[in-house]
Structures are given as C-alpha cells and as structure tokens.
C-alpha cells in the first residue's frame, strides 16, 4: 500500500505539522480522513500504517492519540432497549 493510498489528501501528514493543534481538531481531521479513503482501502490497515509512520515517532501529539483510538476495537453492537430488550429481563 502506498503512502498516498492511506492518506490520499495528506490530512494526517498535515495535522502533525500544525503547531498547537488540539484533540478536537484532530478528531475532525480524522473524520474527514476516514470519509476520504478510497474504496477498497481497509481502514484498519491504513490506521496501522499511519501509526507506524507518525504516531510511533510523536507519541504525545494529539493526532497520535486519535489514531490509536481508531485502532481500538469498537464496542459490540447489540440491541439496547425496545420491547424485546424489556421482555428479556
């Protein structure tokens, strides 16, 4: 996978160059990055590559935290509420 395929707009790259960037701004950039990924690019593989490329070198940067959070397993879905949920208990 080439660098341009996992950061097609260079958003993650540029976020590491913004002085004083905050976690909220990093989350917004991350969302834009996620929707900009080309079809067929596996998100987890792209995140793993970006963590190795940027986050490992600058672990205290807010974007590093956002990238690592993106790699964490998402909580399992499942039904929360509704009639069937109430009847099960």
Task: Describe, in plain words, how this protein is organized in 3D.
- The protein is an all-alpha fold and 89 residues long.
- Helix content is 58%, strand content 0%.
- It contains six helices and no strands.
- Helix 3 crosses helix 5 and helix 4 packs antiparallel against helix 5 (62-71).
- The longest helix has 14 residues, at 23-36.
- The mean pLDDT is 86.
Strand content bin: under 5%
**Element-level helix/strand string:** HHHHHH
The computed structural class is: mainly alpha
Q: How big is the Rg? A: 17 Å
What is the residue-mean pLDDT, rounded to a whole number?
86
Oligomer description: single chain
Tally of DSSP helical segments: 6
Helix content: 55-70%
Low-confidence stretches: none
Number of DSSP E strands: 0
Major beta-sheet overview = none
What's the N-to-C terminus distance?
A: 48 Å
Overall form? elongated
Summarize the structure.
With 89 residues, the chain is mainly α. The protein contains 6 helices and no strands. The radius of gyration is 17 Å and the shape is elongated.
What attributes does this structure have?
elongated; mainly alpha; 89 residues
């Amino acid at each position: 996978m080439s660098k341009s395929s996992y950061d097609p707009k260079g958003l993650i790259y540029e976020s590491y160059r913004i002085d004083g960037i905050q976690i909220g701004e990093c989350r917004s950039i991350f969302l834009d990055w996620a929707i900009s990924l080309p079809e067929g690019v596996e998100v987890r593989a792209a995140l793993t590559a970006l963590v190795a490329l940027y986050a490992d070198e600058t672990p205290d940067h807010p974007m590093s935290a956002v990238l690592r959070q993106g790699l964490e397993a998402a909580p399992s879905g499942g039904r929360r509420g509704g009639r069937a949920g109430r009847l099960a208990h």
